[in-house]
Each structure stands twice: as C-alpha cells, then as structure tokens.
Amino acid sequence: MVRGSGANFCVVGHPNKGKSSIVATLTEIDSVVIGPESGTTRTANAFSFSVNDALVLTLTDTPGFQRAREVLHWLQQETVAPHARADRIRAFLSDPSHRQRFPDEVELLTPIMQGAGIVFVTDASSPVSGSDLAEMEILRWTGQPRMAVINPIAGEAHQAEWRQTLDQYFQWVREFDPLKAPLETRLRLLSAMAELLEANQRDSVLSLVDFLKRRDLQRVDQLAPQIAHYWCEQVTRRLDVDKFPSVNTAEKALHLSLNEAESELFNEWVKAFNYSQLSFNSSSDWMADYADLMNVEQWSYWGLKQQQLLWVSGAAGAAAGSLIDVGTAGGSMLLGAVTGGLLGTAGGWLMTQKVPGSRFNLPGIRKHQFVGPVQHPNFPFVLMSRALSFVQQLRSRTHARRDQLELAMNASNWSSSEQVTLLRWAKQLQSDKWNHASQQALEAWVQQKLFGDSPQ
Ligand SMILES: Nc1nc2c(ncn2[C@@H]2O[C@H](COP(=O)(O)OP(=O)(O)O)[C@@H](O)[C@H]2O)c(=O)[nH]1
Ligand SMILES: [Mg+2]
After folding, report:
1. Which residues of the chain does CATH 3.40.50.300 include?
2. What is the pLDDT along the chain (456 residues), one digit of tens a residue?
3. Ligand index nearest the alpha carbon of residue 122
4. From 3.40.50.300, 3.30.56.10, 3.90.1700.10, 3.30.365.10, which CATH number describes the 7-197 domain?
5. What strands lie across the sheet with 7-13, from one edge to the other?
6. Which residue among 82, 154, 188, 427 is least enclosed by CB atoms within 10 Å?
7. Interior CA angle at 109 toward 108 and 114, to 5°?
8. Residue nearest ligand 1's atom 13 by CA
9. Can you tell me which atom of ligand 1 is nearest the CA of 39?
10. Is the minimum distance from the CB of 12 to ligand 1 under 6 angstroms?
11. Is the CB of 19 under 6 A from ligand 1?
12. Quick check: 58 and 8 in contact, CB under 8 A?
C-alpha cells in the first residue's frame, strides 16, 4: 500500500518541449511516452515517486494547451477582480460544454485546480507568441505555485526574451535539460520546486531530495565491492569436465555460464536503477556495443590492443614470477596467447583444461579435469571494462532517454600500471594466491574508476 499524497505538480507547455521527458526524468519512470510527434500525450497522466511506500511526488504529464487564446477570451468576458480569478477558472471547468470545446485545457487545468503546482516547460526556440502569453496568463489566474523550466533542446536563440517574460509570470525560472540532467541538477530542480510549496508538500519533496542523496551514497558504497566480487568469480570460473559428455560441451557450457553471470548482474543493475523498459535479453534493441561477453570478436572494443597486451602480459608475468611458477606453463601460455594471434585462435587460448593442482595427479588415479578458468590475457580487461561501462552508463543516464547504451570505457585507456596490476590480480586469482589485501586493493581501484572523477 502506498501511503499519503505527497506533493503534486502538473507539467504544462506546448507539445514537443520535453514535458514528458521531464516527468520521466524526475519520477525515474522510463515508461512515460516520449515522442517526436506532437500529440503523443492526449490525456493527463499521473506518475509518482514513492519512498518506502509513501507517495512523495506526483507529476502529471498533460497534453498542453491547444486553444489558450480562446480560453483566456472566455475567462475575460466578465470583469474579474484579481482575487476572484481562481473562481473564474473553476467556473470555466464546471461548464460541461467546455469538455468538448476545450478538451486539452480542461484536462490540464483540472488537476491544477485540485491543488497541483505548475511546471511550465518551454524551449525558448522562437519568440514569445500571443498564445504563449495567453497560456502564462491562464496559469497565473489559477493562483497555484508555479515555476518555469527552459529546456535547452533547441538552442539559445530567444533565451533572454523568454527569461524576462517568464520572470513576470512564474516564481522560479530554471534551465533544465531532462536528457542530460545529472543527479546534482535534478536535486537542485526538486529543491526549487519544494520552495514553492506549503509546509507539508514541501517536506515531501525535501524527503525525496534526501532519499535520492542517500541512495546515491549507498550505490557508491555497494557497486565497487559488487563489481570486484563479480570480476573475481568470472576470472576463476571453471567447470568439471566429468559432468559433461565431452571437453567440447564443457567448454560451451563455460562460455554460456560466463555470459549468463554477466547478464544476470547487468539485469540486476537495470532493475536497481529503476529501468523497466530495458531488457537485457533483447540486447540488440538498446545496447549498441555490448553483445555477449564471450563474443571474442568484440573484445578489441573493450580490452587492450595487441601491442599493449603483449607488453602488459610481459610486465605482469615477469613481476608475478615470484608468485607463480616461473617458466612453467602458466607464464609461457600467457605469452603464447599474445604472440600466437589473439582472436582467431580463441578455442586454443581462451581456456586451459588443466588446473594448477593437476600436477598432483598420480598415474593410475583418475584425473580430475576442468575447463577454465579463461586464460586469455585480454579476458580480465574485457570483463572489467564492460561491467564498469555498463554501470556508468546506467548511472549517468536519465529515464527520459530512449537511445541505446553505448561503449563508455575501454581498458586500453587505463594507465599501463593499472593494466599490469589488473592482469597480476587475475593471475593471482587463477593461481590461488588471492588474499584480503588484494581484494581490498581491487575494490579501491574499482571505486576510483567509477567515482574517482566525480566526487559526490
Ligand atoms: N536534444 C534534446 N531533445 C529533447 C530534450 N527534451 C526532449 N527532447 C526530445 O523532444 C521530443 C519531445 O519530447 P517530449 O518529452 O515527448 O515532449 P512533450 O511533447 O512536451 O511531452 C522527444 O523526441 C525528446 O527526445 C532535450 O533536452 N534535448
Ligand atoms: Mg508528452
């Protein structure tokens, strides 16, 4: 059960100014219909944000004015004292014939007169027109708290003129781009909205601001350990060959299980970030660059270039010499993977069928064979950059976006000491030399990669 009623705002303005986009961004609901065609929104639709089952903010997405000048004309047919203007709007709404004549105006004025605040959206792309003025005048007559948002979709051509006009009709005027708005910007807009309201509703919006801040800090805390844990699991994932009819099928199963572990994590994030329309399984619809983790042909997008890989593998191998058996299969296979043509020979270099412990197998005792873990030196990089990239995209995106996620991070841009360290961690894990300090260092590194550049 959702409790309380929280604060209410109606989002109004001409078609295609980004009203629905603002609703989607602020309520974090990606099912709000957004479209380039006018008239995408025909009726007023309410979208709410709840915190712990309590309704804190409802935004009503409206069709926008169609016949503002006629409505203003009707309102002005009688002499109306300023204090009686809201009543005049009520009289307009109570005339049953207006539902047919002015359906859009009735639709948008009804929730406002039931107590909603107003967010008026314009893009300042053309000069202020007569019908714009009529709209703003009608909104002023409602006497409800009102702010104006300039959505910079269409450039700055008439910004100054709009600003000066808006200042006369609205208590707050803000610029806000619903497609780009990072958390800080959204919080500023919400705080401004809160300022317009009476105590109860104001507290509701402020509790939302608070919640969003806390949630972001929580995410910062949780994501790095989560990614580190996932990466360690994937780097060491292997399957017991005995459980499969052949080594070949076991290899296929390993691929599948690596892919599935990734999509499971990505799906979890999609949900945690309140995306309902993004389904990871129909990946090609909305992810430009991701495909499957084990689609080796795509590894060059995510991982290191061949030259880098050669150098980094050498550096990591040499330095890790004291950790793993120097000169044995481990090191030379790694180099072999680099020199022996990387991607074409995936089958050969993707994984080893021997585990470090296999040297203990004695003649006469049944050998225990595994496929995996994946030995390809680019694997740890691809794994990490895809996860970092994915979560960074989700975090920086707003719920008004309908375009695809795109490649945001590439391991080849990391410093060479970072690359060497990452590969060393992978080798440490695969040779059972992992320890608490490494775990902590890995988490700290992920944390820095995700949030280092944008302290919250
Ligand atoms: N580039 C850009 N496009 C926007 C922005 N806001 C909205 N749009 C686009 O403008 C179109 C109309 O947006 P919508 O929110 O449906 O406008 P509404 O008709 O006022 O509800 C959509 O294609 C949006 O993607 C913006 O800030 N920047
Ligand atoms: Mg709309």
Report:
1. 7-197
2. 556 689 999 999 988 889 999 999 999 999 888 876 665 556 889 999 999 999 999 999 988 888 999 999 999 999 999 999 999 999 999 999 999 999 999 999 999 999 999 999 999 888 999 999 999 999 999 999 999 999 987 777 888 999 999 999 999 999 999 999 999 999 999 999 999 999 999 999 999 999 999 999 999 889 999 999 999 999 999 999 889 998 889 989 999 999 999 999 999 999 999 998 765 554 445 566 677 898 888 888 889 988 888 888 888 875 443 333 333 344 444 444 444 333 333 334 444 444 444 444 455 555 668 888 988 889 999 999 999 999 998 988 899 988 888 778 899 999 999 999 999 999 999 989 999 999 999 999 999 998 875 443
3. 1
4. 3.40.50.300
5. 45-51, 54-61, 7-13, 117-122, 146-150, 172-175
6. 82
7. 115
8. 18
9. 19
10. no
11. yes
12. yes
Task: Give CA–CA dist 166/191, Å, rounded.
Answer: 19
Distance 141 CA to ligand 2 centre (A): 24
Q: Quick one: which of 59, 58, 16 has its CA closest to 41?
A: 16
Provide the β-strand partners of residue 240. Answer: 370
